[in-house]
């Protein structure tokens, strides 16, 4: 994985705590804010609003779509933690100011808290989602 070990461990701790108590303890929320900085709170808001959808095709290929606070739908790939939002391209890739954008962090948090919406699609529909993203960028 390409996330720092401390971030991976924090997400594991959040998942464990959430499974046991259905909430995230304050010290883990502080850790989240410390490691992920200003993306932590907006990411938690996205999780609270159930904005994360796991899109799965019969082959098992999976991607995530996150309805951003602006109302735009962003496609996220948790396997390589990549997001189609402008903040990811700028703050994460160009400037290396952040580990992740709020959308990918919301994906990881919603996985940990079991808060993902689920959407089953055909292989063709998944391909169309991927192609639509390329058209937006090009």
TrEMBL record:
Residues 74-112 form the SWIM-type domain. One of its GO terms (cellular component) is Shu complex. GO terms for molecular function: zinc ion binding. Pfam families: SWIM (PF04434). PROSITE patterns: ZF_SWIM. Keywords: Metal-binding, Zinc, Zinc-finger. Coiled coil: none annotated. GO terms for biological process: double-strand break repair via homologous recombination. This is ZSWM7 protein. It comes from Leiothrix lutea (Red-billed leiothrix). The lineage of its organism: Eukaryota, Metazoa, Chordata, Craniata, Vertebrata. The gene is Zswim7.
